[in-house]
Amino acid sequence: MAKRAVITGITGQDGSYLAELLLEKGYEVTGVVRRSSSPNLWRIEHLLDRIKLRPADLVDQLSLMRIVSSPKPPGP
After folding, report:
1. Which of these, 17, 44, 51, 64, could form a disulfide with 29 (CB 3.0-4.6 Å)?
2. Using an 8 Å Cβ cutoff, are 7 and 38 in contact?
């Protein structure tokens, strides 16, 4: 069974580096991104084919519960 990680702030500097590290270690990575009219994905463009992105808001408890409660976070 593969290890899974959910990263909030994956589009930021630290989140993008963490995603790279976890992918190298064999993790399945799901990134939480804010719903936005203009996506800011330039830091993770090279990872988009290896990660899943899920829209959520850290102040919206239900949106986070949907991501972490499923046995395997669904893809985009």
Report:
1. 51
2. no
